[in-house]
Amino acid sequence: MLSKKEKELIIEIWEKLTPVAADIGSDALLRMFASYPGTKTYFSHLDISARSRHLLFHGKKIVQAITEGAKDISQLTVTLAPLQTLHAYQLRIDPTNFKVQLFSHCMLVALACHMGDDFTAVAHAAMDKFLSAFAAVLAEKYR
Amino acid sequence: MVVWTESELSIINSIFSSLDYEDIGPKALCRCLIVYPWTQRYFGGFGNLYNAAAIKSNPNIAAHGIKILHGLDRAVKNMDSIKETYAELSTLHSEKLHVDPDNFTLLGNCLTIEIAAKLGDGFTAETQGTFQKFMAVVVNALGKQYH
């Protein structure tokens, strides 16, 4: 699925984003809430307004998990095992939310806004494939 | 019937008037053919699509990208009657071009990404939400004549 070059490109992008992890993650979440209001239902117990502590904290956690996963994509199932359990049994977020149209899409938009022309079509393709794989693995324990 | 607030109308008009159709049209279509390679199936007669470089330098693809943006412009100029405006285009895509309507969303996503890359922080969450609502209406209208 992902070529060696694509994997290297993905690692390079996420390493560069580590210092702004909270900003990118919270930006992606905010975009998702604005475009797909149904997704807010999973956060009714938190303050998810722009720049809120909860939003920044969650955004950072998500980007950190994605960066960890990027380091060895062939081991996604191992790296994500605890998150799989969390999402399946405790959070029980409908996994369609992870996908192309929803969170992944908004993450791609956040990356495009941040990286401008550096978010080339080739980088976009690699990232889309990686996030799809990530979302699929995250949903594995649901049933 | 789709209802647009003053703010939404203003956002859509502002986005499109900031775009150079001759630049963003080709970029969006090229991105779609590269990120979702199966979409190349509809462009068999367009020449060399062998790799990203070939796609980006293909003049037929560039011309088509511009055509698409001008098509979207028709929706922008007729926000209250997008369904009617696109009836003919919908029939064309269904009966002559045989395009799976799921592909409209993919191209829409690529256009969103191109606009995001261009506007940077100016493409706020609220702006994106409005743009996605517009694209959803466009995609729906284009799929209306399929049966």
From TrEMBL, chain B:
CDD domains listed in its UniProt record: Hb-beta-like
Keyword ATP-binding in annotation: no
GO CC annotation terms, alphabetical: blood microparticle; haptoglobin-hemoglobin complex; hemoglobin complex
A Gene Ontology biological process term: hydrogen peroxide catabolic process
Keywords assigned by UniProt, alphabetized: Heme, Iron, Metal-binding, Oxygen transport, Transport
Top-level division of the source organism's lineage: Eukaryota
Pfam name, any one: Globin
GO molecular function: haptoglobin binding; heme binding; metal ion binding; organic acid binding; oxygen binding; oxygen carrier activity; peroxidase activity
Annotated ranges, domain Globin: 3-147
PROSITE patterns membership: GLOBIN
Family: Belongs to the globin family.
Record's protein name: Hemoglobin subunit beta-1-like
